[in-house]
Amino acid sequence: MTGMRKRVTVGFLSIVCLLFFSGMVSFLELSHLSRDTGEILKANKRNIELAKEMLDAAHEQNIALIKLSVFGDRSCDSLCRASMERLENTLLVAQNEALEKSFLDSLAFATTELRLLTDNYLAFGGVGNPVAAPAAPNRADSLGSRWYSDEYQVLYGRLTAAIKSYMTSTQSSLVPRAEQMKKNAYRAVTPVLISLAVMIAIVLMLFYFMSIYCVTPIERMNKGLGDWIAFRVPFAVKGDFKDEVLDLKEKIETLINLSKQNKA
Question: What is the value of pTM for the model shown?
Answer without folding.
Answer: 0.59
